Every structure is written in C-alpha cells, then in structure tokens.
Amino acid sequence: MQLDRNDAQLLEMLNRSIRDLQRVEDDPQTMTFIARRLGNIVKHMKDLREDLQPRGKGNGKLRPDETTFRPAQPSA
Description:
With 76 residues, this protein is mostly helical. It has a domain at 1-35. The protein has 3 helices and no strands. The termini are far apart.
C-alpha cells in the first residue's frame, strides 16, 4: 500500500513528535519542571475546593441577603 503525499508528511510529523517527546521524557530537568507545575495546579485546585466549601454556622445554608443577586442599575 502506497501512502499519498499528505499521509507521508503526517506520518513523518508524528514520528518526529514521538522522538521529541521521548527526548523530553528522558530529560530530568524537564520532568522536574513538569512535576512542579502539576504540583502547583493541584495545590490551586485544593485551595479552590476549600474556598468553595461552606463554613460557619447554619450548616452551609446561605443567609437571606446572600441568596439574592441584584445586578447594578445602569445610570441614566
């Protein structure tokens, strides 16, 4: 089976990408950088989760003044 020109270019691009990713995978500095970035993302997600947790009295129920949203009135 013969590949047309576009398929051959796509196959070569995929092969090049795989080789590049294998080089990155073998580089300890890159892996350290990625691990730190992932750690930061996880930390931010945990912080966000804690910020979204209900706290205080009332078992997480909002007070009446917190349940209504009033958009700003445009000035005339």
